[in-house]
Design goal:
Largest sheet: 7 strands, parallel
CATH architecture of the largest domain: 3-Layer(aba) Sandwich
Low-confidence stretches: 61-66
Number of domains: 2
C-alpha cells in the first residue's frame, strides 16, 4: 500500500473514532508499527492529527473552521492580488486553441482573461463577472449558465443553472474554492457547491484554484474530494509541507 493511501485510511479512522492506536493501525493496514509511527509523525507535521502516547487523535480545528466568514466579491478583489495573478497565468497556460472550458466565479478566475492567448475557445461560466470580461472578444464564444443570481459572489445558482451544467461536457474546468481542508474542497454556499460538483464531474480535466491562504480552511459545504481532481493550481507561497502532502494525492501546480 502506497503512503498516500495509508494516510487517507488513517485519517478516515481518526475522523470516525477520534483516537487511534499504533498497534490497531498496524494490524489493520498490514504494516509495521514503525511505519505507522512515521506516518503519524508526518501527518502531525502537516497539521492533520495530534500525536498522543501510543497513537494519535483528531486535530481539533472546529473553532477556526466555524469562524470562516464569506466575504463579498468586492471585498475579495483586493486580497492576495499577486498570488491570484500567479494562479490565473497558470490557468491560461493550460488552455489551448479550440478548448471547451468552464470557469467558475471568483476573483482569482477573473484574472485568467488577462493572460489568455489561446483562440477559438468555448467558455461556460456561472459568473456574471467572467461573462462580462469575455463576451465581446472575437476569439471566445461564451455561455452564461443563468439561474437564480447570488449577488454576494456574482454567481448563478439553483435548478436552472444546474440543469444546463448537467448537459455540458468540457475539456477543462477551473473552479475556485473558499478553502481546502484535508481532502475536502469547500465553499460557503451549498447551492454554489452543488453546481461546481456537477461541472467537475462533467470535465475531462478538473482544476481547483486556491491561493496559499486557502489551505487548512474548512468553509461550510464540501463539494469535492481532492483525490478526484487533476490538480490544485496555487501560488509560490504554499508551504513545502503542504505542497508535499497534496502532491501525494494530486498534482500541485504553481
Amino acid at each position: 500500500m502506497i503512503k498516500e493511501d495509508r494516510f487517507q485510511l488513517i485519517l478516515d479512522e481518526i475522523n470516525k473514532n477520534s483516537v487511534v492506536e499504533v498497534s490497531d493501525l498496524s494490524e489493520a493496514l498490514n504494516v509495521t508499527e514503525m511505519t505507522i509511527r512515521r506516518d503519524l509523525n508526518e501527518l502531525e507535521e502537516l497539521g492533520l492529527v495530534t500525536r498522543v502516547h501510543g497513537g494519535a487523535k483528531k486535530k481539533v480545528k472546529e473553532k477556526v473552521n466555524l469562524s470562516y466568514t464569506e466575504l463579498t466579491y468586492s471585498q475579495k478583489k483586493t486580497i492576495n492580488v499577486d498570488q491570484k495573478r500567479q494562479i490565473a497565468k497558470k490557468c491560461a497556460e493550460l488552455i489551448k486553441d479550440n478548448d471547451i472550458v468552464f470557469i467558475s466565479s471568483g476573483t482569482t478566475n477573473d484574472f485568467i482573461f488577462d493572460y489568455l492567448t489561446a483562440k477559438n475557445i468555448n467558455i461556460i461560466t456561472n459568473s456574471i463577472s467572467i461573462f462580462n470580461r469575455f463576451k465581446d472578444h472575437p476569439d471566445y464564444d461564451v455561455i452564461l449558465s443563468g439561474g437564480r443570481y447570488r449577488a454576494r459572489t456574482g454567481t448563478f445558482i439553483g435548478y436552472f443553472a444546474n440543469k444546463l451544467l448537467k448537459e455540458i461536457k468540457v475539456h477543462k474546468a477551473f473552479v475556485g474554492t473558499n478553502g481546502i481542508n484535508g481532502n475536502n474542497i469547500t465553499t460557503a454556499n451549498e447551492e454554489e457547491g452543488n453546481g461546481l460538483h456537477i461541472i467537475l464531474d462533467n470535465a475531462t480535466e478538473r482544476y481547483i484554484l486556491a491561493d496559499s491562504s486557502k489551505f487548512g480552511i474548512q468553509a461550510f459545504f464540501t463539494f469535492y474530494d481532492v483525490k478526484n481532481i487533476t490538480g490544485i493550481i496555487t501560488d509560490s507561497d504554499i508551504s513545502p509541507k503542504t505542497e508535499e502532502y497534496y502532491n501525494r494525492i494530486t498534482r500541485v501546480i504553481k
